[in-house]
Amino acid sequence: MGQTIKDKQEVKRGIDFTNLKLGGGIGLTDIDCYLEVSNKLFLFIEVKEGNRAMPTGQRIAYTRLVDAVNVSPDCHAYGIKAHWDRKNCLTPSYMIDLAKATVDREYHTKGWQETVPMSVRDYIDILLSVHVPERRKAITGNENNLFAELFADLLLPEEEEGEQKAAS
Predict the structure, then answer these.
(1) What's the pTM value of the predicted model, to 2 decimals?
(2) pLDDT digits (tens, 9 = 90+) for 84-121
(3) With contact defined as beta carbons under 8 Å apart, do 130 and 152 qualify?
(4) Fewer CB atoms inside 10 Å of the end CB: C or N, the chain?
(5) What's the distance, CA 23 to chain centroid?
(6) Dihedrals φ, ψ of 42, to 5°?
(7) Does residue 16 have a pLDDT over 80?
């Protein structure tokens, strides 16, 4: 996961959606980060400074996107909202270190819910352990992740928990 933005000047350029306004309440939004692993796990991340909430339209867009991907029983899509602060998340070059941002809300199948506060990095490790355990070591470089194992049940939808218990 040692990826960085290759052209930092591009980050400084904003994208103006003004001339793309459409009628009928249709608007445009962006996705701050997208992660897909093995066509099984899909993660859409929105990052805000401090305790800023996602605007209603953006939250609706993330909800619909996650719902559309979750149609297949083999796909697990999550929308998360994370926040960053200047003290803990800014790099020396004033970029936001996404791994250190704190996840505070998630959407999977049962509406937007508050989460146990944890870093985006730990949240991703948990999702990898739950949904693509065969790929987690290759992706994270970690063979064991006690944190992920302890908190994996927090992210499992109830119907999956029941299926796993029945299979044991």
Answers:
(1) 0.76
(2) 998 888 888 788 899 999 999 999 988 999 999 999 99
(3) yes
(4) C
(5) 30
(6) -130, 125
(7) yes
For the chain, how many helices (H) and strands (E)?
A: 7, 5
Query: Which residue in the block uniquely carries the two structure tokens 């306004």?
Result: 21
Helix, strand, coil abundance in the chain, percent, nearest 5: 40, 25, 35
To 10 degrees, what angle do helices 120-131 and 146-155 make?
80
Question: Distance between CA atoms of 1 and 101, rounded to whole angstroms?
Answer: 15
* Confidence at residue 114, expressed as pLDDT on a 0 to 100 scale: 94
Residue 152 one-letter amino acid: A
Radius of gyration of the chain (CA): 17
The alpha carbon of 161 is separated from its chain's Cα centroid by a whole number of angstroms, namely 21
**Pairwise CA distance, residues 30 & 47, whole Å:** 11
Backbone angles phi, psi at 5, to 5 degrees: -75, 125
Mean pLDDT score, 53-66: 94
Token pair recorded at residue 45: 């991340």
C-beta of residue 64 within 8 angstroms of C-beta of residue 77: no
